[in-house]
């Protein structure tokens, strides 16, 4: 684990101001979201905006990742082709499984050849947000050397369970333990789910410390005000 990924500031892919302002908060990673935070009718414009941002804005002091739409959708296919050609640090793959990662790896290899990029330069961060993803995490991690971290999306997992997150996070103890151990054994980053209340810094600190004790190396931030706390803890 060479790169620092203590804090990952997630931003909507259709917010030009946020894209310009994001580095000011000093996150290790800026994560542009083309999936959940972009409504269907704005997918094309958001994709174009993120591509332009990666091409022309200065992110030399922070790593840039992009969460694409699911690969089995038209938007996911468009995201792969368009965003990969401006060489983000990593693509974040929703609802990831072994077959999806194999497909993404193959597509990236073709694009890197076409663009003259170094082979394997674009990394992958699978999103763990299903019970199947958690139970097959070791297979998922071993699918491709591009996988340099995983992101536990507890909100997605709780949606599958028909349940809700709590601030205490007791419902995540087993899941966090499993993910932390698997990532530590594989030598990759374990990125924890976000803490939803951006006004509760004490709660954020407690949640982040719990994640760190369970082997996580970084955490999603929903707000720039959370970055300093995450950088200090991780």
TrEMBL record:
Binding of Mg(2+), residues: 129
Top-level taxon of the source organism: Bacteria
Binding, substrate: 67, 129
Keyword line: Lyase, Magnesium, Metal-binding
A single GO BP: oxaloacetate metabolic process
Cofactor (UniProt): Mg(2+)
Stretches assigned to the HpcH/HpaI aldolase/citrate lyase domain: 6-222
GO molecular function: citryl-CoA lyase activity; magnesium ion binding
Its EC number(s): 4.1.3.34
Pfam families, alphabetized: HpcH_HpaI
Protein name, as recorded: Citryl-CoA lyase
Organism: Desulfitobacterium hafniense (strain DSM 10664 / DCB-2)
